[in-house]
User: What shape does this take?
Amino acid sequence: MALMAALPVTAATATPPAARRVTVALWGDDSNPGTTARPFRTLERAQREARPGRPLVIDLRGGKYRLSDTLKPASSVTYEAFGYGTLRQEEIVLSGGRVITGWTQTRGGIWEAPAGGIQTRQLYVDGRRALRAPLGAGLPGEVTTTETGYVLASPVPATWSRPDDIEFAYTFPFWVDARCGVDSIRRMRGKTVITMDQPCWSLARKLYGADGEPLPAPTAIDNSPSFLTKPGAWYLDRRRDKLLYHPLPGEDVRKAEVVAPVLQTLVEGDAHTHDVAFRGLTFADATWLAPSEPAGFVSAWSNYRRPAVDGWLTVPGNVAFRGSRRITLSGNRFQRLGGQALELSRGVRDVFVEANRFTDVSDGGVVLGAVLPDRTGISRNVVLRDNRIHRTGVEYRGASGIWLVTGDDTTIEHNQVDNVPYTGILVGPPGEDGGRSHRTRILANRVFATNQVIEDGGGIYLRGKQGDGYADGALVRENVVTDAGAQNFDLGIYTDDTSEYVTVDRNVVHGYPGSIGGCADPYLRDIRYRGNFWDDRVPDGIARRAYPGTWPTGAADDCGDPQGLTFEHNRLLSPDRAAVECALIPACARIVAAAGPI
Assistant: This one.
């Protein structure tokens, strides 16, 4: 002890300098000194107090901070709700929306207000996501697909106003929820001819009609003033620069807070951003405009195509850190967002995402790793812990709650993912893209009510090589995965094509069409299952093998035989009373009790 006390203090062991604190309030003034009594008015002014090597804490007083531009966080700065972590923590909203005022009533119970030149794909009324003028049905009558769109006998579509604003949506059973805009609708020789936007239509036909099948009729249609028949619907009339809204019964739009998201990125950190924290804030009211372009949203998973790009792009995050280091996001809310909620990409390192809540998000909750089209920048040392992700993918239903594309040393632990349209936790690259993760840990998560809309996914879905051996492969341990949506082919823990070096250990899985399994296309190997509790269902139409799981085979499914599967000490639960049986088995009940964050 005496020897240690005699050692000189070096730069490596010296106590870091104490953080300086400044305060920002909506009632402040940027000419103030930034104290609690005399706060700054703007975050931009507060950020100018940052100094290299000297941590700065910016305390935000309660209120809605409407951002006019993307916030670029300064390094070595913590952005924190005033009173964070106490009973007196104040509520802070960083909003990318514009309040719409000046409402006047027009015909048919429709109200309109000046739009102010905005572009948006969402609208919120008192915090509720309003419907973008839905038709509520597909195309009427018999429909023929052509090289440029559709032909049908019904004259009804030719009566729809503003046809060049209309979008067709396509929700397919497997992975896909796409959108293409309409170019024109006209009557010709007793037929209605619908011409679709290019290049969206060509991209969609190439992707979805690859087997020679014509693109089917849309499953939903929206965005025409002719469709403003349902209360709670809205339409942006770009020609007149007016926003139209059909109020709910008893709703006074003049007294409501109507917010149109206009920013596409609320917060963006780059490779120069480091040592940043956000604590106790709400990120809200952002849009994403790419689906409104002529190329539309031709998608699979959370990816979409553009003709100038060789391959796919990934839906971007409304809050994004790209190449940043030592980032902490703790106790925040991500809501009312039009893209991915949070993106961690281009080689982010040492990122800690804890105790946040993600809800009412158009696409996925969190995407991390080498997102497309870059295919570079493996994320390292990212921890997602104690978060709740639910009601994501409300607009683009091929999204997952959490998606790790590729990364090293990623821990996804003690989160809850529920009520999502597709997969809960997805690990692996899309399509034929390469990339390999190492040492992924998926631990003690609670995943339920996945695949509410789209099938061929699951609670926890892995694909691709997960390491160079079991030692640095993926570990899926002590997760509770239950109660899928009403789809035919979804698996609780899904190790799909090219999965390799995955350990599935002591999980509880029941209430899915299949508990475990995958398709060996072109291969699937080296998966070991130890000490799990499952009901071992197999979807209709899939032949049960001599060992547990759902393993399609044969030319019809394009699947071969999996190799290197091992099963040790797993326990079968009765499909019709799995939860009850689990509760009576101490080891199973302990896993359920420890999973989080309920």
